[in-house]
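Audit log entry. Action: structure prediction of a protein-small molecule complex. Ligand: zinc ion. The ligand was supplied as SMILES and no pocket hint was given, so placement is left entirely to the predictor. Protonation state taken as written. Sequence taken verbatim from the request; no trimming, no tag removal. Recorded inputs:
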Amino acid sequence: MDLKEKLADLRQQGLEDIENSQDLKRINEIRVKMLGKKGNLTGVLRGMRDISAEERPKVGQFANKVRDELTAAIEERHAALEQAALNEKLKAETIDVTLPGSPVAQGQPHVIQQIIDQVVDLFVSMGYEVAVGDEVEQEVYNFEKLNLPKDHPARDMQDTFYVTPSVLMRTQTSPMQARMLEKHDFAKGPLKMISPGKVYRRDTDDATHSHQFNQIEGMVVGKHITMADLKGTLKVVARSLFGDKLDVRLRPSYFPFTEPSVEADITCFNCMGKGCAICKHTGWIEVLGAGMVHPNVLKMSGVDPEEYGGFAFGLGPDRFAMLKYGVDDIRNFYQNDVRFLNQFDEKG
Ligand SMILES: [Zn+2]
């Protein structure tokens, strides 16, 4: 077999091997076997010195052609196998979107907001309208129209953050009583409203008071509304928030915008009336102030007190939260310490 035939054989065998190679390792082996320093092609070319001078250029040319062909075939196959390997890898590493993800920390409504939401939901279920007023209020709605004329001694307890001489940060949610009474069309039935929101007062910084806190104001005005309606309503609120078997008692009190006025106590939910530290051994816990809407308040908002009357009450969700969860310092609610707040996670 002469050199040219050997080269032709080598070429054919090489091209077949290349085509049959199934992975990158194999194609690299073929490259070394064919084209390496100790490879087959180099081995065949060593026989060049034995052939005649005229034959040598022709055989040389053919040998170059064979080497170029094999090199090109190896490169092509190598590229194809590389692409196949990449595709295989991408397929194997596809993201499985059905796998569980890393947990994301989730917040919850503030504990006071939770109480507000509970109370508001309860009253909405009883047909009350929600009226959220402005935190900056005219003095006339915050005081005068609630039967607190200038120089009234009860203003001293609240006199507070004025924005201008006649505008202030509201000291109570009660201004919404006057605003809603003015707007309401009594021909269409009684006014039943609930008004939750933030209020502001000058206060010494102690454990049970804060210069900013929350109130929920409620009022019902219509025909033939009595104190029995008030007591029944308060009982529903107390039982829904603190427990089924609790009772409500009313004690005489004083508020400028109600007459008569009462403080409402509920049975101590901790000792069920037997007496304990929470209820100061009385068996009762004071939860809110209430009363029958003062005729002057109705008159000042253009409602005839001879024809219409009703009750109003104001409760403090901050105080409710303190009682319900046994928190002894109101300032905890406003310090935004997540270790404190996370204890009131509704989701448990
Ligand atoms: Zn008690």
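Audit: result stored. The chain has a mean pLDDT of 88. The beta strands are 129-130, 136-138, 162-164, 167-169, 191-200, 212-222, 248-255, 258-267, 284-293, 309-315.
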